[in-house]
Amino acid sequence: MKRRAALFALGCRLNQAEAGLLADQLRTAGFEIVPWGGPAELLVVNSCTVTAAAAAKTRNIVRAARKRCPGAFLALTGCDATIAADAWAADNAAVDLILSNADKHTLPERLPAALFPTAQLPPAPGGTPGGSGRDAHAPVETDRRQHHLQHRAGRPAEAGGTPTLPWKPSDCPTAEPPPAPGGTPGESGRDAHAPVETARPPHSPTFTLPGTAGLTDRKRANLKIQEGCNVNCSYCIIPKARGEPRSRTWDDVLRETAGLAARGHREIVLTGINLALYDDHGRRLPELVRAILRHAEGFRLRLSSLEPGPELPRIVELMAEEPRVCRHLHLPLQYADDRILAAMRRPYTLRAYAEFARDAARRIPGLCLGTDIITGFPGETDEIFAACRGALAELPLAHLHVFTFSPRPGTAAAALPGRVRDSLARKRRLELDALGRTLAETFVRSRIGTTAEVLVEKRRTDGTLTGVSGEFLEIAVTGAPAEVREKMLVTARVTQSTGGRAALAEYEGHGR
């Protein structure tokens, strides 16, 4: 009998891509992947910690999962598992296994044998059955994990929950901790009360990943190509959670691309912490995109969020030339005033961003340019906010993702003076939300009469298709024949704006 596994990814597209890879590994190891929310013997939460609110949401998800399936084996990985490993380990009732970002892809071989149909654990990539397959220099949380397993052992299931499984500390394969400087193998050499250093393990500049990430319930597939960031913005904890920039090897990206295309995905989204930093021994993002398009056919390619930087002009050139690359560029600005940008430690000025944005809009007809904005950042006055709002209105933006500043412990911004009242920050966010809707509607109206390529996500009972265009519009398509199915790409003529990024369109044809 197959064991059931359910996965939940909080936060960014990168977390979703990683959850897809973990699901594929677990499927290969013999698990049945089931939707989150039902009974399962294994629960995996890929956590987020980008803000204090995100970390709190992670805890709420874990508590709800534990209550729903009290006897399940619950594994926590991701950014909050990396940053707050000690806090999670101290909460004996929460999780059974804590894996940092560096270790998350060793999950199958770190599970107890009782979860598998036989006592034989799956081999680690390139290793032996039961081996860890992990970075020998990464920290090992052996004692804490065994404590969790002992705590969970024999707990009765509540009504509707998953029956308790016979977890034992010996069921979990572990790796031998590396010797401490001047120590002997098996000795950690660290203060038992010191924090666990899971945030910045040593890494090579490139990496490979096992599996193929496409989840069967997703119309678009997220493909991880990059990890880490060294920008160190004052509000951001991600460099501590993800480490220095690294890039997935060229050949491994092409391998997974072919796998995703073979599974029928018609849109692949390249994801990473900072895609513009992709560099496999001198081969950068534009070259990789061209190689992907040559390597496999039948899909379009979308780039997820890109940080401003020197590679952007070449990416714009690529987007203007390649019809299979979606004309959608999400370029986080974070704030439209140099005083706040300086406090955020963003590596550009408003003028430089504006010049690039206008040049990109001029060179790519129909470009949908989106951005992120944070309101309520320390030091934001009425005058600065008014300047920010005015500058945003003048930029060629098609949509805004607006967030209220959430101080994240462990970041420089959390200690900055000049905090804005929460109520005022929320009021300013609502103002920018309204501006964002206006910008989006203006962009949609500019597309009326043009032909859009739409990835079909759903067919309504009245026959209307709904999906997303290459320009990131939410489009309802009328007049499509019955043979058009989910995941297909159709062409449709945009006829009407229906609010925000939404539009109506008339079916013209389909192919892929």
* Biggest beta sheet attributes: 5 strands, parallel
Helix content: 25-40%
- End-to-end CA span: 38 Å
By DSSP, the count of extended strands is 21
The CATH superfamily of the largest domain is known as: tm_1862 like domain
Mean pLDDT: 83
Broad structural category: alpha/beta
Work out the helix count. 14
From the coordinates shown, what is the CATH architecture of the largest domain? Alpha-Beta Horseshoe
Strand content: 15-25%
As laid out across the biggest beta sheet, the strand order is 2-1-3-4-5
What's the CATH topology name of the largest domain? Answer: pyruvate-formate lyase- activating enzyme
Q: What's the alpha carbon Rg, rounded to whole Å?
A: 24 Å
What spatial form do the alpha-carbon principal axes imply? Answer: globular
Q: CATH first level of the largest domain: which class?
A: Alpha Beta
Low-confidence stretches: 124-204
Overall number of domains: 3
